[in-house]
């Protein structure tokens, strides 16, 4: 159950969300005006709370303020599939189906820890408010760019899932999500990695251990470091 923390955001929240691509090229006053004009809500969620379910109607654009959110669905075989994880302040989620006229999301959004989310009404995002608000136009332009980035991310995930072996899936993910910068580790639990790749956790654990034994990667807690970039590249 979500608890509404506030019916409007304060300046401190607006300052924190300036990092969001949704508010790119906008001033702090612009961001505050967007919240006021739209009637945005700041919602609080406990770990495990559903922000929206597969059966809910898409009516809001969601922006992560703090915490973490995962997007997924329950498959016919009873397994839960995760298709996205959001952990950074300012990340936008729940936007893909917002303007398609769908009656249901078809996916769920769940808080992975105590979290706060800003919720913007769909109607505010579908057209300007008629008050000659320059920030409103900029917000819509930024939203279109966000859609493009999401489409790109989905395409990259499809490329990962299309790899024939678990090792190749892991290697492709290391390449894609590090943008080929092998000095940066992937930070993900084995359960999260298994859900993301659509395979069982034991299978992922075994392959990670084999890759570590082969000198390809080093695992420290939740972080996976690449030790042999050339071999990781060769797997793809």
Automatic annotation (TrEMBL):
Q: Pfam family of this protein, just one?
A: HTH_Crp_2
Query: One Gene Ontology cellular component annotation?
Result: cytosol
InterPro entries reported in the protein's UniProt record: cNMP-bd_dom, cNMP-bd_dom_sf, Env_Response_Regulators, HTH_CRP, RmlC-like_jellyroll, Tscrpt_reg_HTH_Crp-type_CS, WH_DNA-bd_sf
**Designated name of the protein:** Crp/Fnr family transcriptional regulator
- CDD domains, per database record: CAP_ED (cd00038)
Is this entry keyworded DNA-binding? yes
Q: Which SUPFAM superfamilies match?
A: cAMP-binding domain-like, Winged helix' DNA-binding domain
Could you tell me which SMART domains the record lists for this protein?
Answer: HTH_CRP
Sorted alphabetically, the keyword list is: DNA-binding, Transcription, Transcription regulation
Q: Which residues form the HTH crp-type domain?
A: 164-230
Pinpoint the Cyclic nucleotide-binding domain residues: 22-123
The UniProt record lists the keyword rRNA-binding: no
Residues of the signal peptide = none
Organism expressing this protein natively: Mogibacterium pumilum
One GO molecular function term of this record is: DNA binding
